[in-house]
Amino acid sequence: MGRTEAGDWVQCGREFSTQEIEEIRETVAWLPGLARGELAATVCEHLDWHTAAGTPKIQACQKLLERLEATGWVELPSIKRQKVPTGKRAGVRLSAIPVNECAVSNKIICKNSRIPDPLDISSRIC
Length: 126
Description:
3 helices, alpha+beta, two-stranded antiparallel sheet
């Protein structure tokens, strides 16, 4: 893989030197387990690449990293898909939690009873 010339890499108005590209490559290789967004934030911090307001230019950095990956200069971590919440909690059923008084659908549950399971039609409400 050959070296780039200064000026070959411009992203969002910033021209990157050969030294900066090498630093980006070293950072990516050094932190292979980071998510892409975290990696971009780290590169922004290392290169002091910020907006006028002082926030890191993470999106511009992500685009630069993707361009570098497309040309074979870096190997980015795979894109991690976010897990879709299922609405289930780990081993906790609300119907098993004792309560003193609780309002459910504008009805009061008997003292010291359990919250009814909404799927159980035999649940008793006073």
